[in-house]
Structures are given as structure tokens and as C-alpha cells.
Write the C-alpha cells for this entry.
Amino acid sequence: MKKVSKIYEMSLYELNQMAKWVAAILPVKVRYGKDFFNRAAWLEKSQWWSRERLIEYQNERLRRLIIHAYNNVPYYHSLFKEKGIRPSDIHTLHDLPKIPLLTKEVLRKKLRDLVASNVSKKDLIYLTTSGTTGQPVGFYREKKSEYSDGDPFWWRRYQWGGCGLVSRRAALTSWTIQPKRNGTRRIFSYNPFRRLLILSTYDLSRKNIAQYAHALRKYKPEFISGFPSALEVMVKYFAEAGIPRPVNPKNIFTQSEEIYPWQRKRIREYFGCEIYDWYGMEERVVCASECEEHSGHHIFAEHSIVEFIKDGKWVSGEEGEIIATDLENYGMPMIRYQTGDIGQAVLEKCRCGRGLPLMKLIGGRERSFAVTKEGGYIPVSIVDIPKATEHVEQFQFVQKERGTLILKVVRKEGFCDKDVGLIRKNLQEKFGEMIAVRLEFVEDIARTGRGKLPLLVQHLRIDEDLV
Ligand SMILES: [Zn+2]
């Protein structure tokens, strides 16, 4: 009876933890299932296919998707009718430009019509984009094609960095950890089932930093993944506190935010290992990862078709907006989705020998562009504040009107007028007269609800008129 009451007294968190320890006994084969291993084995092979074979595969998948969309998705059925497109007109990816772009505006207005009528609602999950400001855009995905440990595409990315299914990992991302019963926050939590140490992105501070080091020492992750901004802050606090490297990860995986050069440098130098960056988005129309050569992001071509567009036309080897077609999500097909991100196809073949095409992100994500008075776009990532002065703790741009930016700065000890001059000089060199910047000193810069720390909080709507 005593035992029963003890279990009864356990919090939901503790019960959950116990269940994970029990589940962790399950062999990997049982845990991930046959489908996962079959698909993972197939993806292991397809990454080495020739470009031609990959395109052939994409064409075949595209034809299937188009027929499905025409027959089962009200939005596409009426769009094709209206534009006089027959499904047989879309034979290869070269026919894609016949189909109008799928904008975020369409998602906002016609969400219901975009859902396939032959897919059960219970197999779908509703998600929203992680726009840092304004209204997030909602969409549906099939549950089976969600980002998760059971997703072979996601796992291929880890494999490239040498991380296996049973490797010990730590993550510093948007996960929240249930607080203790007395309301105090937990800085970390260990999931034995996934062999994953979850570190809280929301509680990173100088005061707490020793606890992060303690957690890493205790669980000894072989790999660390996370938001670049959070990893950067963590290593910065470690270095400042004189904490020697608490763990020696084999590699680090970054995602969800653009990784800026100073972040890559700082994280690499502290941990002494390589960084494998991932380019993707909540909508998951593009999946792309760096390989061991780090010469760009390999597009997972089995998953999506990526186009680069400038002035309404395909561009090759020059920058354009990233337009993507998801070949996997039949629940809500996204054909020629306007991501709002800017990138460029890399025409050279990667030295790794994989057939998957390479791309480079240019100036980051859609929200990282500032708008000049004349309506031009400038990526704010060209400004390198950490290079200009060491006395800045954190910084972030905010844009509310064309031609003007606010630069929020959290000052470090020792910050003086000289630093203001250095920042001004850097801004002037990069922005010239195109953008006026107002400095604003603040105590802290808050992360978004999802734990991200965007370089630019863009209040102007720029996503629809980039093309
Ligand atoms: Zn490569």
C-alpha cells in the first residue's frame, strides 16, 4: 500500500520519466520499426544516385502528387481548371512554372481548401510557421511525415555528422521542461528513451550557467544540437565563467535559425568540433543539410523540388527566392510554395560525391532583410557587431519603417563611447546612406515564444513582394 501511495504522490513529470526509463529497454529495432529501417536504408543509397536519376525520381513523384492534388484537393482542382492546366501537362519539373506560386496569403485565406479530401483529419496535425512577428501562418501536415526521431530524412542528417540512433545527444532548442511541483524551473531534463539531454534555452543566464556545465558533464552527450543563438550564448557564458569544456562532442548540429559566421566560429572554437547546419522550416517544404565538406546545404531531393526564382524566372547559379514543392505531404500538398527565403544553387558537385544538389542561403531568412527607403532589401547579417567591438553582450535589429532600423544593444562591462563609434563605423560601412540606424540600449533581449533569438524583428511585410 505504501508503494502505491508513493506512486500516487509522484508528479506527472516523474511518472513520465519512469515510463521513459521502462521504454528505453526496448531494442532499437522494435522502437523504430521496419518501415523506418527500410526507408533509412533506401535513403542511404539514394543520396549517392546521379543527378539525372534523382531528377527522374522527382519527376515520377511530382506526376503522382499533381494527380492527387487535382483529384482530391479543392484548391488545386479549381486552380488547374481556372488556368486551363490538365494534370498531364505537368510531366516533369520543367513544367512547374505553369502552376502559380503558393503564397502565404493563399494559406491564410484558403486553408480548408488545401486539405486533401481523401486523407483522414485524424492523420493530420495542425502547425504554424515560426514567424517572429505578425501573424503566424497555419498549415497541416501528415503526422507520419513529422520531424521526429522516427523520421528517416531527419536521421540521415544526423548520420552525416556521425550520430547514430543510440548516440547520446543534448539539445538546446525550443523544448520546454515541466517545472517542479513547487513551481521552480528545471534547467535540464534527461530522456532515457531517446538518450537525449534537454537543456532549457529559456533559462540560459550567467547565474545558471554552472548547471548547464553540470548537466553536460553528467550525461556526456556525444553530439549537441540546437539554435545557433542559444549555443553561442551558452559557450560565451562558459568561457566567461572560466568553465573548461564540460564535454567533448564529436559534432554539433544547428538548425531553425540562420547561423552567422561569428556564431559558427565561437561555437566551433569552444567545443573544438565541426558544425553541421540544417536548413528547413516548420512547413517542411525544404530539407537541406551540410555534409562533412561544409560547402553548402545538400537539398534532400527525394523530399522536395527546389526552384530559385528572380523576377518570375528560374535562375541558375545566381541568387533567387527559394520556391519549393514538397513531394511527401499528401495531406496538404504544397506545390511551388513561396518560402520567402533567398538562396542560390551551387553548380559545382560536392567533393563528398553525393548526387544531392547543393545550395547556399543568401543573407538568411526572409525576416533577416531590412527594407531601404527606396524599397530595396539588405540582409542585416552583413553587419558584424561582434567583430566591431567585444563589449556587446547581445544585439538585435528591429524595423518598423522603411529606411530606418533600431539596433538594440545589451552592453557589457567596459562599454564606452568608443564602442558606440566602432558600431557606428561598422553600420556606416555596410549600410551607407541606405538605412539610418538608431541605437537603443536595453537590459535584455527576449527570445520568441519558441526560444529563438532572431537577428532582425521585421514589422514590415516583405514576404509577398520579394519576387
Ligand atoms: Zn557534400
In short: Confidence is low (pLDDT under 50) at residues 463-467. The domain at 368-458 is CATH 3.30.300.30 (GMP Synthetase; Chain A, domain 3). The CA atoms of residues 169 and 221 lie 5 Å apart.
